[in-house]
Sequence to fold (390 residues):
Amino acid sequence: MSAADRLNQTHDILSESVQAVENPFKVTVIGSGNWGTTISKVVAENAALRPHLFVKRVDMWVFEETVDGQKLTEIINTKHQNVKYLPNIDLPENLVANPDLTDAVKDADILVFNIPHQFLPRIVSQMKGHVKKDARAISCLKGFDVSKDGVKLLSTYVTEKLGITCGALSGANLAPEVAKENWSETTVAYELPEDFKGEGKDVDHAVLKALFHRPYFHVNVIDDVAGISVAGALKNVVALGCGFVEGLGWGNNASAAIQRVGLGEIIKFGQMFFPHSRVETYYQESAGVADLITTCSGGRNVRVATHMAKTGKSAEECEKELLNGQSAQGIHTCKEVHEWLVECGKTEEFVLFEAVYQIVYENAPMDTLPDMIEDLQGVNIPKEEGEHSE
Ligand SMILES: NC(=O)c1ccc[n+]([C@@H]2O[C@H](COP(=O)([O-])OP(=O)(O)OC[C@H]3O[C@@H](n4cnc5c(N)ncnc54)[C@H](O)[C@@H]3O)[C@@H](O)[C@H]2O)c1
Ligand SMILES: O=P(O)(O)OC[C@H](O)CO
Fold:
């Protein structure tokens, strides 16, 4: 049996094994960027394949803009390609681009969040009062909500603002590869809510697997929402560090060193601030170390940071020059993490996160990164008067 046949067989078994639900779920994806469009393609393919579980039409809310004189939603709905954020990838015809946020979400049973996370507060406030009370959500966003109340997962933010249960999806998933249907894995995390209506009536792990699993996109469903969210947010900060050393031309050893320190800090951050997250998630799940590796090899954050090192330009300038409207989320996340660590007096325990923040926001020289990590760790070789760090 060929590899393709084996993949299709797995797919068919999954299709048959999830029993029909009383009322098929209507799905809406909120966001249409590089990943938003990719995951919309995945979801719409499954909605078309599984009418016993999902309404065929999937709405994708699009932050409307004009591309070459035409509305992006019109282009998507006629050409069935998102020419700006995911060019040259055909999208299923049952995926409908919708510029009206309240219209897109009002009938949805499952909301999949996919916007750059800096826009979440505004989008959620626009959605308030327009979503079904028993809707369920999955957040693909990477980042945190930091306020004087503490550091929060974005799924928690959605739950608190909209009153709906929210899980997360995160994994080693560079959008262009998934969109081309190159095989990858992901992790979905979801905890059944207290008002769970029962199998066949509500969203559960089997339904979520049926929604996201494709022959080219293998899904493991767990319940550690905090673990996958912490790993997904923080690997973008580590990727900035990798980009700096790559841009300086220091090679693979330096990148591996950054990833080693980064993985340790990701796990420590999770254990310290989200103690219910599980350590195994960070190294066993796609959302953990695998996402760290792929993001640090070829993600947008590493590319932006490499460009910063090569040109001396700011993070914002590099993001604008390289990404054509897409977002490198690590730029926002390293600030959120810094603000939180200052608030709780823990900056010295997260030397890499702090060094990345200082390079991005305080013009700390990148080539002092090894010293910053060493110095912030606080274990230094005693120096003679006038001697500098090596
Ligand atoms: N791209 C990936 O490989 C990938 C993979 C997994 C998860 N994610 C995460 O998914 C989230 C969304 O990423 P993405 O790649 O879909 O987006 P993106 O980085 O491609 O950003 C572009 C999107 O932002 C929208 N936008 C621009 N200005 C806006 C505004 N003022 N209000 C609302 N929307 C606005 C644009 O319309 C477009 O849809 C991020 O948190 C990201 O980390 C990305
Ligand atoms: O391209 P990045 O750096 O935003 O990373 C994308 C995804 O999060 C990788 O899984």
In short: The first strand starts at residue 27 and ends at 30. The chain has two domains: 3-223, 227-373. The radius of gyration is 21 Å. The pocket of SN-glycerol-3-phosphate (ligand 2) is lined by residues 142, 172-174, 236, 239, 291, 294-295, 299-301, 329 (CB under 6 Å).
